[in-house]
């Protein structure tokens, strides 16, 4: 383009000179020719000048990863207001970092050159230097220590996958002198969490809990950092605030580790299912409770014995409340439902029942019914004549022994997603533990780093559907009801009539007769079809009032039929 422009300039000067020195050309045609040449030259000059403009803004310099935050202030000072044309990237070299007056070199790179910079396979000698991103880690416990170990051990792989060298600049801990994993270099430790949160390109929050995690993450966003966390409790309580802070800072917010450890279920719901309508999600999302129920089921342990085994193995914490009472699973259910239904769902929207009251008898009864007892997280869309909205809950439920969730053993997690177009999808894997969870954290780190190098950003919060949260009585489920009834003609008919009176359809009936202190009784186990919880509870109340029913022995939800 520049060569053409130079040629045309010469031709134009020649034409004008010729017209000037040749009086015979002082005609209308001669003047028209001169003016046309001048016009074409003007247009081409404008195009050339446009291409010569500096291509991207100072902020894009920074996000391109080709400059550090120190260089950004230099860019902003030395050439803020640069025109925004993303197809080019730049590299800035400063003689004295941080001083705009000392910009030594601004190299414009084409997009292709930038991609070559990110090529992992280039021979070492020819490989252009990668930008460095500063990474700060908040917390060095079970997960944090493994994230740090893997980041250090596999630094070259992470550089090749993300396009940037990831340099851990600091690890915030409560006590620098406390004994800890040798994989975490002592010189990185600091008790200044605020400094770690505000002086890095990428901040990984792994301290857990609400405060100071929330304040530190907000400070990290305000400083322009991308944030990665595994903190499901924080997201379930303050998700919208964190999303808004990320959007305001125009940086990434990722939290794959917050749901089901190593299983990429956040990615699946947020990105893979973006082209579909999810109708339900059913999952085992707490490894500790699954381990406890599995020990009770396979070894016949009591709840207390199984809990003690879980604590000994490090699955359950000294205070197992969050796991055993279903709160950890409820936070995960809230996140799952928010992503699946594009609706804000918080902890308070989730109906929660834990597993503390489950006894060895409950497990035996489950087996007798051909089922396993599992703590399930359920997120369900209802769109029918009676209700339009979503139901989100966590509770123990019977799962038929041949259902995929029934064979999820030990501390494993599994999530079953149903969508209109895709049908059923099953995700299975390790839901907890240092290295499996670190795997999920690090996938987020690579994504956030790649965005800082190449541009692009994590999906923002999607809450456009804004569906109503249904009250618990409108949740659709099946019940298994066990009754002791008089073993006499008409008893089953009377029981069936109670269900019919409450518009609940029976799916199956099983009866075992026996003699109980002089009375001829039958133990009847009834499984219903799906019905709203309100109607099922009313039917159970009706059964208690029915004179042929000696006792309602148990009611239990059934999922996965
Ligand atoms: N452990 C697991 O299997 C999984 C954990 N997560 C989540 O990952 C996060 C971290 O979990 P874990 O590593 O298991 O916890 P952890 O309790 O083992 O580690 C947290 C660390 O942060 C430190 N810490 C607490 N407050 C601090 C502060 N103000 N400044 C500096 N350090 C502080 C603690 O001393 C501790 O060393 C939590 O949000 C948790 O919910 C998510 C999935 C699985
Ligand atoms: N406590 C959780 C692990 C973290 O999410 C579990 O047992 O699954």
UniProtKB/TrEMBL annotation:
The keyword Transmembrane helix applies. InterPro entries: ACT-like_dom_sf (IPR045865), ACT_dom (IPR002912), Asp/hSer_DH_NAD-bd (IPR005106), HDH_cat (IPR001342), HDH_CS (IPR019811), NAD(P)-bd_dom_sf (IPR036291). It catalyses: L-homoserine + NAD(+) = L-aspartate 4-semialdehyde + NADH + H(+); L-homoserine + NADP(+) = L-aspartate 4-semialdehyde + NADPH + H(+). Its cofactor is a metal cation. One of its GO terms (molecular function) is homoserine dehydrogenase activity. The chain crosses the membrane at residues 28-49. Pathway: Amino-acid biosynthesis; L-threonine biosynthesis; L-threonine from L-aspartate: step 3/5; Amino-acid biosynthesis; L-methionine biosynthesis via de novo pathway; L-homoserine from L-aspartate: step 3/3. Residues 480-557 form the ACT domain. The keyword Transmembrane applies. GO terms for biological process: methionine biosynthetic process; threonine biosynthetic process. SUPFAM superfamilies: ACT-like (SSF55021), Glyceraldehyde-3-phosphate dehydrogenase-like, C-terminal domain (SSF55347), NAD(P)-binding Rossmann-fold domains (SSF51735). Its EC number is 1.1.1.3. Keywords: Amino-acid biosynthesis, Membrane, Methionine biosynthesis, NADP, Oxidoreductase, Sodium, Threonine biosynthesis, Transmembrane, Transmembrane helix. NCBIfam families: PRK06349.1. Belongs to the homoserine dehydrogenase family. Catalyzes the conversion of L-aspartate-beta-semialdehyde (L-Asa) to L-homoserine (L-Hse), the third step in the biosynthesis of threonine and methionine from aspartate. This is Homoserine dehydrogenase. It comes from Actinomyces ruminicola. The lineage of its organism: Bacteria, Bacillati, Actinomycetota, Actinomycetes, Actinomycetales.
